[in-house]
Amino acid sequence: MINIFSILFLAWLALAHQEGTSSQELREKVPDEFEGSWQRWHMKQEHDLDHADAKSVFILHDTRNAKRLSKLDILRMYGLLREEVVGRGDGTGSHDDTEVITDDMKNHLVQQVMSLIDKDGDGEISFDEWMEYSSQGGEFPDFGYGPGHEYDFEEEYEKHHWIQYHAENDPDVMVQHAEDVEHELLHHLHEIEHEKAGSGYNQRFPIRLSKIPPKFKA
């Protein structure tokens, strides 16, 4: 018997399939509610904080507790401390939207941020430099790379969905949401891609649409 997950899986493939594999650029606008402030968007999306002052923003991203933000801290904040963004980066989305993060992207972002805040040019942002920049209305700018998912797509899914809906009352996922289905598809297609890399296998869509019964394509 075909269960609801199988039906959703086949329907998703039918809707998502295109000839070859398309790749969308990492471009995501700041939602209107944040009035153009990427920093506010990031703090709400990733840290669940509606109002965070400059000191809190700094402390949350100072991973070494050194009162300094390094290049790695900046990349982590923007979600670029990885080789690729899988799906939307939050554990859901289409695997066809997975985007490679290049060294050029990383270097450009770090250079731009440092040029704004790192006044002594030592390659890191001190607490004093940040507070001075913030006191003049400065914020971490938007580069169009989304809200800055700081962890990999598995951890992001757990943080943004699993903990809220399944961790306590539904650990066996008896109730499946669209996010659960998307995540499972994303997880399996990502595994297939990396297991079959260089094999010539259809890495992103291993199931042939021609073999899917028409009733599941409607």
Automatic annotation (TrEMBL):
GO terms for cellular component: endoplasmic reticulum-Golgi intermediate compartment. Residues 105-140 form the EF-hand domain. The keyword Secreted does not apply. It comes from the Eukaryota. PROSITE patterns: EF_HAND_1 (PS00018), EF_HAND_2 (PS50222). The keyword Glycosyltransferase does not apply. GO terms for molecular function: calcium ion binding. Gene3D superfamilies: EF-hand. PANTHER family: NUCLEOBINDIN, NUCLEOBINDIN 1. This is EF-hand domain-containing protein.
